What does this fold into?
Amino acid sequence: MRKNLNVIAAYSIMMGLIILVGIFQSWNIALSIFNLCLISAVMTMGANIQWGYAGLINFGIMGFTALGGLAAVLISVNPVQEAWSAGGTNILLSLFLIIGIVLAVRFVLKRYQKSKIRNYVIGAIIISGIIIIRFVSEPGIEAIEKVNPARTGFLGGLGLPIIFSWIVGAFFAGGLAFVIGKVALGLRADYLAIATLLISEIVIAIIKHEDWLTRGVKNVIGLKRPAPYEVNLQQTDWFINLVEKFNSGKLALISDLSERQAALNQFVIEGSSVFVKLCYSGLFLVVVIILLILTQKALYSPWGRMMRAIRDNEEAANAMGKNVVKQHLLIFVLGSAIVGIAGAMLVTQDGLFTPGSYRPLRYTFLIWVMVIIGGSGNNFGAILGGFVVWFLWIEAAPIGLYLINLTTSGLEDTHFLKVHLIESVPYFRFLMMGIGLLLIMRYRPKGILPEKIEIK
Amino acid sequence: MDFLNALILLLNYIFVPALAYGSQLAIGAIFVTLIYGILRFANFATGDMMSFGTMVAILFTWYFQSMGLTLGFFPTALLAIPFAILFMGLYMLIIDKFVFKYYRLNKSPPVQLAMVSIGVMFVTQAVVRIIIGPSDRRFFDGEKFLIRANEFKEMTGLNEGLAIKSTQVITIAVTIILVSTLFWFLNKTKTGKSMRAYSDNEDLALLSGIDPKKIVMITWMIAAILATIGGVLYGLDKSFKPFTYFNNMLPIFAAAIVGGIGNPFGAFLGGYVIAFSEILLTYAYKKFFMYVLPESMEPDGLIQLLSTDYKFAVSFSILVIVLLYRPSGIFKGKIL
It folds into this structure.
């Protein structure tokens, strides 16, 4: 108990802060912060097992998040029959062609010795394959995108409940990570960072511009929900009764009957959105707890010890007979899969998929700030980092506004400096993140909750 | 005649823009490579440092314009560059003193320095946005075109026009002057030689009495010059927007690595490799073939290898291929 005192203290302070937001701003805001904190926590857990356990830098978090989001779309949206009949065959044919190319390249790689000719043959297979695929897919893509472009214009998905996408998202992200890992894991640390950063940009470019699959920048809105809709809740009797019971004290103070009814309606509307958010919080919390248990178990297992050994001294681990390359690939895939889950959760919560909103600053660098600030190598630290940083990211604007008003209180309200500063309040979050990261790296390089290795 | 038309077409839409864009990337790539070679970390704040320098230049440009001071044919921003470089250098030295120096003295691993540079990136981005705002700004004045498309058509009697923007010429000219001075400095002067020695083998350089403090300071000053000029040239040619500058970091990194990181000449050429492949692969060649091929063989499609949406993806794919087959870059950089 004593050992974990700082963990408990840190988490209590964090919860206290969120509750304060609930009391002073609104429970709606507090809960939406809390939900995104949970999603961030999943992302940081993914990044943490790559960086904290194995020392791999993955700056491609944005790409894996987006793939998770794509999974949510492909699983939950109802299939567009018209589009399938218009261009489905071409797309399926192209898919088989891609598989064929991959198999052909594999065959050449396995069958023949490494030589220049082999490289040229592989190049020729890929290039001619791409050309054939373009000829096959182009008419199909055009036909699909013509089908009711304002509403669909894409193939749609499978029409399954969106919760499944959390698992599928993990598989998508893990699959991509496998390919990237095969290609890039041999690189030195900072090259790996740059390579993954750029590859994730390629992924986003594809998601943004392949309209037949993702609707691209036209966005997919109105995704299915695992939680009830506010509008339906507001008309259900048990919910109204629940809200009435909950607010009976406040309602009793109002004597006028019609006024009381109006107040109750107000409470029901507020309560419904809080209730929906609570549903999400419950779901997310389940995911976070499952992942936390699994990652903690992994950390203290022989496998976790091996990963740390590889991280701390690759050559020595290799000499002891550990397959470094294989383990690196494994952990890269696992970490990215967790990020994929988070990506699907994020889209589930928002109910919409907006490829244009995936930007490296928000989805890669911010997650890294969370891991570093929280404490790499320590799962509790990483989760805490997700909470702290996301909380500050949201609350930076109000805090910044308060500070500006405090420091410029001597100036008139119309003074140009004050007006300018107040206009630029949204950017204070960058400043806060940057300074926070620099301070932590300088004075507490292991994060708020540092890695603690105890032999059990 | 048709052949000439086709040639002019390629010059107008591929060669001239790619040369200008490549020069802008090349300057940025040399900046990345210098920091990597001498200070030994991948600087993720590259794009934002360039945007900081450009911001200062824009503020000076506005100041000069408000005083009625212009350069006539040339954009006023050229006058503002020296002042911007001074501020940029100051900013970089301050950052170095308060941030990077500590890690350098502790001999931290490059990864940690890269992380720190992300912190610097956030701070710089905030400073730029707080001072000048996130919106798109054009600060170009002076004569826009050196040769207009229709003037060219009248002059030569061809169907295709060749438009050369003055910013393109300025970009290329400034790049040539800047890069040749830099290479002269690195290869011929004593300070430049000691910088290269330091980059090659730090311990040996220290043994032969090279002052690391001086090397680091000069590196930051050169970096300030490169960042400011590269940023201003890009801003003059296109426009200034902090977010675009942040994104430009990616092709710049690609250029530096393709050319072989730590090798300034490689980075210089890498910029052009990236720019030309981006534009060559995403240009629609329909018109070109219409001129070159006989009428019966005219193509119906756009003859575009990749849609322009994939511009960035092209350069990144090149990077991935280079990393796979020649990890030290085309022109042999540092050991990977």
Summary: Residues 5-79+156-443 of chain A form one domain. The longest helix of chain A spans residues 257-299. Chain A touches chain B through 42 residues (CB under 8 Å). The radius of gyration of chain A is 25 Å.
